[in-house]
Amino acid sequence: MMNKRKIVGVLGGMGPDATVDFMAKVISLTSADKDQDHLHMLVDHNPTVPNRQTFILGGDEDPGPAMAAMASRLEVAGADFLVIPCNTAYAFQKSILDVVSIPLISIVDESIEAVGEKAPDAKAVGLLATNGCLQAGVYQSAMAAKDLVAVMPEDDELEQLMTLVNGIKAGHKGSDVSASMRKLAEALVDRGAAAIIAGCTEIPLVLDDSMLEVPLISSTDVLAQATVQFAQSE
Amino acid sequence: MMNKRKIVGVLGGMGPDATVDFMAKVISLTSADKDQDHLHMLVDHNPTVPNRQTFILGGDEDPGPAMAAMASRLEVAGADFLVIPCNTAYAFQKSILDVVSIPLISIVDESIEAVGEKAPDAKAVGLLATNGCLQAGVYQSAMAAKDLVAVMPEDDELEQLMTLVNGIKAGHKGSDVSASMRKLAEALVDRGAAAIIAGCTEIPLVLDDSMLEVPLISSTDVLAQATVQFAQSE
Fold first, then answer.
1. Which sequence positions of B are flagged as catalytic?
2. Chain A 5-34, residues with CB within 8 Å of chain B CB atoms
3. What number is the ipTM of this complex?
């Protein structure tokens, strides 16, 4: 039996747990009675890509070429489209699009789209994202184009966020981490955010919708949904 | 910074959740402070490989060539060694070894080795494995070579096991499934098993060590440990 669905190419490992979380969500969102009903994913789980944050903030090791090489290998291996379960990585999407001829689904565009679905009346939206992602402006211009005001972490909050995110990458995902992440989200709500974008794929590993009074848009969930939909589209 | 560790090639998707479980275990067993400390895994998550059970039991669609093609592509993409988080797949290991020159770590050999570590005094060991895996004799000869007596499910138990395993592949992993799986393991203990090998990577998704009075050898855990060790070896 031929499988007509598209093969998903995943630039993974940024970070590792976030990639596994993304794959688990793709699997659980796929309607399947047996193995063969599930999607074929080619996953380059490569945590050794140079640190995206460090480069954006002035470091000298550009992760772009590593990501371009991953994308290229995935295309050669048979991927029909690409996804990256990492928001900051989208600062480097030009490096990828320069070397492949298959589409790259944008976690950023899909997350902003999801605001319109989950919180249609929200004008001010909290943006929990890493320092590098915010510095690179990955989200801000796309939000402005949709007339959404981004409510961002202040400097001390951003510092706390980075400590939490780096801790999650080292395996710290306990209830204390969840509580601290929730406080950071609540601070954005206090400053007017009517919804929160978890614009870093480590965040949904410790924070879920039930923990907040406003809708939470998990960039991982949104990317998984878009992946399942696109893989099954004509 | 060069990463000197070996790149892991994973023939995945057999089944999907078991592959994600395996990857999560590799990640949690790796000592890491940051993304870059984690292992590079190339994962061909291909649930569309023809059903292994069906072929072993007389079907006409041989999964061997699909697995050989996956293995070959992983080698070309840069994998230094291969693993398969599926026990039944080892009935087809010759097809794989015929086409690659990199090693394939055997989930079966590693699981039997682990009996010696987790239950050194066990002579009779319960073998919870699928119909195809038992029919192909994937475990039995290797166990006999270690003077281990395999305590196997009876026909009606095997039928129940297959229903549970196929259910897990379709997403059914609730407490009722765990309770039924536990009963199947306990029946082997009642018939003299001093340890249980969960010789199917779907089983550890619903059964853990704490649920049994005898040691449980999870083939997924054992393969993840062997993977982390081999990737970091000279």
1. 86, 200
2. 12-17, 19-20, 23-24, 27-28, 32-34
3. 0.94
The predicted model scores a pTM of 0.95
**Residue A102 per-residue DSSP state:** S
Residue A200 is among the residues annotated as catalytic for this protein:
yes
Name the token pair of B24: 């999560």
| Confidence tier at A126 by pLDDT (50, 70, 90) | very high
Report pLDDT digits (tens) over B186-206: 999 999 999 999 999 999 999
What residues have CB less than 8 Å from B40, skipping those under 6 apart? A13, A45, A46, A47, A48, B3, B5, B7, B8
Indicate the DSSP class of residue A198: E
Which residue segments constitute the domains of chain A, with CATH numbers given?
8-106+222-231 (3.40.50.1860), 108-218 (3.40.50.1860)
CB contact under 8 A, B24 and A32: no
Q: What is the 3-state secondary structure (H, E, C) of chain B?
A: CCCCCCCEEEEECCCHHHHHHHHHHHHHHCCCCCHHHCCCEEEEECCCCCCHHHHHCCCCCCCHHHHHHHHHHHHHHCCCEEECCCCHHHHHHHHHHCCCCCCECCHHHHHHHHHHHHCCCCCEEEEECCHHHHHCCCCHHHHHHCCCEEECCCHHHHHHHHHHHHHHHCCCCCHHHHHHHHHHHHHHHHCCCCCEEECCCCHHHCCCHHHCCCCEEEHHHHHHHHHHHHHCCC
Minimum CA–CA partner of A32 in chain B: B170
Is the Cβ of B154 closer than 8 Å to some Cβ of chain A?
Answer: no
Residue of chain A nearest B48, judged by CA positions: A36
Nearest residue in A to B15, CA atom: A35
CA torsion sign, B137 to B142 to B147 to B151?
A: negative
